[in-house]
Design goal:
The chain is α/β, with parallel strands linked by helices. The protein is built from 16 helices and nine strands. The strands form two sheets. Strands 1-4-5-6-7-8-9 form a seven-stranded parallel beta sheet. A two-stranded antiparallel ribbon has the order 2-3. Helix 12 links the parallel strand 5 and strand 6. The two termini are 28 Å apart.
Length: 358
């Protein structure tokens, strides 16, 4: 029996600890006492305690200090009472560990010193081992010990989104060079994504061995592609990453932004849960994804700046639409914006719990 398959045996023997947590149960399409809720980017600039502890510590450096990672990861759990922690790190951490010279520039994002555009450049990307990311292994172990029954979500960037940063050299609106490489040199593209799938796969495997309760694979920018191109150039590589985690026996979440046309294809990548942005109602999304997978989402992060009655109505709408899926994890449709009032996030958690209690 695969651990993520719902079954009578499991239902008659309720799991304890993180395996019995609402997040893991929802991901496995098992009954839950309430809809679980967490927020992408819940650990971050919206929290004053985060801004304080990060003062003077560059982003990549902070990801490499296990005590700091542990404290930052725990901050939103303490404050909001969310149903999961997500490891504080960044999607470019494993590529930096693979030898790519990059920095995370405040207000800009990841910037790569020498973008990857040729076969030689791809050759410079070496596979990683546990020792290249030992700080992540340590942080996860410390967090699992601290978190008790609250699940820790591990994560990584999917090959397409990572490739975009590496090929462009930084954040990009149109992904022009990335697509030029994809269409113009498909063999090189597949070599690059194959290597990125290995790196990301090992990064997630390290987290799984250290004890994360679930993982999320972020393909944040996949929505830039048509379904046909997604299927041809991206899906096989994301599938490799997710398939590599099958034996870990933990739920896998797969998320992208602007993916309305891709939801069906993303649901074929091998995840248990598909993350949906705010553009597609969850009942529509579940029709596209199919009846076998759970969904995660999908409050517009901008809505948190609206008056409370508007937020409340939207949360209730999303909970109602989420009932169309065999499992629902409440989240935003993308990350918490830095200017968000953290008290509003706490209130959303309370509302989700109260309104979904069964
Ligand atoms: O509040 C914060 O922004 C925390 C600190 C921070 C992170 N990454 C944490 C992170 C910062 C400053 C970054 C840099 C960065 N990296 C940016 C933001 C640039 C800016 O200043 O606004 C971006 C876009 C990246 C690249 C990146 N990192 C992507 C595309 C993703 C996937 C999620 C997404 O937003 O689409 C990440 C993951 C990430 N970065 C996480 C964290 C804590 C993990 C996921 C999570 O917490 O949800």
């Amino acid at each position: 029996m695969t651990p993520t398959t719902p079954g009578a045996a499991r239902d008659s023997m309720p799991a304890t600890g993180v395996a019995g947590s609402p997040l893991v149960r929802a991901a496995r399409r098992e009954p839950v006492p309430h809809t679980p809720v967490w927020f992408m980017r819940q650990a971050g600039r919206s929290l004053p305690e985060y801004r304080e502890i990060r003062t003077g510590v560059p982003m990549l450096e902070s990801c490499r200090r296990p005590e700091l990672v542990t404290e930052i990861t725990l901050q939103p759990v303490r404050r909001h009472g969310v149903d999961a922690a997500i490891l504080f790190s960044d999607i470019v951490v494993p590529v930096a560990a693979a030898g790519v010279d990059l920095d995370i520039v405040p207000g800009t994002g990841p910037v790569v010193a020498e973008p990857i555009r040729t076969a030689e450049d791809v050759g410079r990307l070496r596979p990683i081992t546990r020792d290249d990311v030992g700080f992540v292994d340590e942080a996860v172990r410390m967090l699992v010990a601290e978190l008790g029954d609250t699940p820790l979500i591990g994560f990584a960037g999917a090959p397409f989104t990572l490739a975009s940063y590496l090929v462009e050299g930084g954040p990009s609106r149109n992904h022009v060079r990335t697509k030029a490489l994809m269409y113009g040199e498909p063999d090189l593209w597949h070599a690059l994504c194959g290597r990125l799938a290995e790196i990301t796969g090992e990064f997630l495997a390290v987290q799984a061995r250290a004890g994360v309760a679930a993982v999320q694979l972020f393909d944040s920018w996949a929505g830039a592609l048509s379904e046909a191109d997604y299927r041809r150039f991206v899906l096989p590589h994301s599938r490799t990453v997710l398939a590599g985690l099958a034996d870990a026996g933990i739920p896998r979440i797969h998320f992208g932004v602007g993916t309305a046309e891709l939801l069906g294809a993303m649901g074929e990548a091998g995840a248990d849960v598909v993350g949906v942005d705010w553009r597609t109602p969850l009942d529509v999304a579940t029709r596209r994804i199919g009846p076998d997978l759970a969904v995660q989402g999908n409050l517009d992060p901008c809505l948190l700046f609206a008056p409370w009655p508007v937020i409340e109505a939207e949360v209730r709408r999303i909970l109602a639409e989420g009932r169309a899926a065999p499992g629902h994890i409440f989240n935003l449709g993308h990350g918490v914006l830095p200017e968000t009032d953290p008290d509003v996030l706490t209130r959303v958690v309370e509302l989700v719990h109260a309104a979904s209690a069964r």
